[in-house]
Amino acid sequence: MKLIPATILTGFLGAGKTTLLNRILREPHGHRIAVIENEFGEENIDHEILVQDSREQIVEMSNGCICCTVRGDLIVALGTLAQKREAGELDFDHVVIETTGLANPGPVAQTFFMDDEVAGHYLLDAVVTVVDARHAMSQLDEHEEAQRQVGFADKLLLSKTDLVDKDAVAALGARLKRINPRAPISKTDFGKVPISEVLDLRGFNLNDKLEIDPDFLSDEEHAHAHHDHEHEHDHACGEHCGHDHAHHDHHHAHHSDDIAAFVFRSDRPFNTSRLDEFLGGVVQVFGPRMLRYKGVLWMEDADRKVLFQGVHQMMGTDIGAKWAEGEVRGSKMVFIGKNLPKESILQGLEQCLV
């Protein structure tokens, strides 16, 4: 039986993975794709931004793509998809796994070699890493996860190049080449990139990965490979780093305790002007510490959902799907940051409700 190619889509918080996925899900490219996506923290906003229907775990998209929100083990999710495909319940020819922005892609990639059932159904096609041109230099300085995502990539996609000058793009490109000379670099503009730059790259080379990390296939690491999609503290474990240090210390790089996620939920609508003013102030004061924030909002007198997301001081909104008849309206926002004043932000958002 022909193996199903799988692409791991990774990149630091806010790099543009979901934007790229949305583009892949909407374009008539002829592929039928199963998407497995997950998020850091207790609430998965991306699923609603992607498919705008949180009632289903697996949703078939308009162009034949399937979206599966993972709460449990990646091996179980891949096995379930393969079983449903064999039973004729699902029809797809490629899998895209979107990792959380704080994930080390190493343990996810390892799953394709360490588990017999997964290896019997799937072929790891490539690790594609989206890099935020505006924030990547500081992210690479401050976060080992960002270095690992670049170091482990088979393909690098530069996003947000329109927000920086040519010299900055060139400097970033040179740094990425030093970290990972094997991975070709392309630019993506709001997720626009030929599908051939993302799928069917045949880019994953196990020997290359073993050069980066000789312990890639060791059982000691395998214990951690299963949990990349469930527990916050496990997203960065494993030692598959390919960054530009001459040595590779094999220690477990757990998230710093000062990075945390929290969620705001409400079944009352927001007052638009109050919310704009409050969020503007929060971003102005705490922007450098706000790694990622996003949400699906119920705004006063609006018949459509408002999609809200940002990285550091860059914040934006977009109009989402119409509220369905009979759908329970409400807002859900996720904040991921370093030492953010959780209670003050939650109380402030409460004050912005109608």
Automatic annotation (TrEMBL):
Residues 259-353 form the CobW C-terminal domain. The keyword Hydrolase applies. SMART domains: CobW_C (SM00833). InterPro entries: CobW-likC_sf, CobW-like_C, CobW/HypB/UreG_nucleotide-bd, P-loop_NTPase, Zinc-reg_GTPase_activator. It comes from the Bacteria. It catalyses: GTP + H2O = GDP + phosphate + H(+). Keywords: Chaperone, Hydrolase, Nucleotide-binding. Zinc chaperone that directly transfers zinc cofactor to target proteins, thereby activating them. Zinc is transferred from the CXCC motif in the GTPase domain to the zinc binding site in target proteins in a process requiring GTP hydrolysis. Belongs to the SIMIBI class G3E GTPase family. ZNG1 subfamily. This is GTP-binding protein. It comes from Noviherbaspirillum album.
